[in-house]
Predict the 3D structure of the following.
Amino acid sequence: MAQIGIAGGSGYGGVELVHILRRHPQVEIAWISSQQHAGKKIEEVYPHLRGLLDLRFSPIEELPASRLDVLFLSLPHGEAMKIVPGLDQDLVIIDLSGDFRIADPKTFEEFYHLPPPSPKEQKSFVYGLTELKREEIRSARRVANPGCFASATLLALYPLFKENWIKGPVFVDSKTGSSGAGNSPGATTHHPWRSHSLFPYKPFAHQHLPEITQLLNKPDTPVIFQTYSAPFVRGIFASHYMELGKSVTDQEVADLYESYYGSDFFIRWIPGCPNVSFVRHSNFVDIGAATQKGYLIVWSTLDNLQKGAAGQAVQNMNLMCGFPEETGLDTAPVHP
């Protein structure tokens, strides 16, 4: 069985990796780290895992890289780039932070407010949105997992950009649940602040925007991108508004998405508008649309901790390790 390490296992992304990898028949979680909780049993931090995983959190300095086949880095932005240069080139590395997603160092600095990684290290990573980069990921040893908002928007817009359907800018509003803010409490994640609220943040400046424009690569079709915090726990609901260069029918839109994603297990076309409740706790992405007189709205929904983070990372691991892509991930969404 493949031996797995998780650096940063006490955050929501890290513990979601634990949930998925525990049921994966081809792997074993051999090591997990947390600076804050080093020495504690996992069940002391996450009581719902009591009796399910007999491991203690270790400090990152005790990383046993030579004993691992795969290392997931689920660390704050800026930390993975400190660790990666010292790791063996043959170790499969999947980084869930933003450290290696952006090719241009000036753009990285602008959006992350951090010094960029070295160009050599950045170029060693493949951008890991499986449905759009499958063959590159399959042959890679290092993958930069995409951001949750970026995944929702790229999967919604990619066919339209590739086929040159769009005339003018695309306006995106994307709403996420409270788990997207991580498990460290802050003023705007405090329950009285957000439990019955909906508010925007990072206008024109969200760090997932350059991932989107980098992959779509159409500077003459700007993406106006706004994120919102919404009063639910898990999920992303992204709405994309645009004018088309021609009038199309609802069936023509459905046929376009079928031609791109018809063979992708985790992408589901939904007649009409999807519901974020129907993808929670799963790796599925539901996409729907409506069109009228040359205008188009496309909606996409995903679970920010699964397809937006840990599920996507495991999907990439499966490809990189030669496992069937759906292994450990083909569970139904949880509803209600």
About this structure: Residues 306-321 form the longest helix (16 residues). Residues 2-145+307-321 form a domain with the Rossmann fold fold (CATH 3.40.50.720).
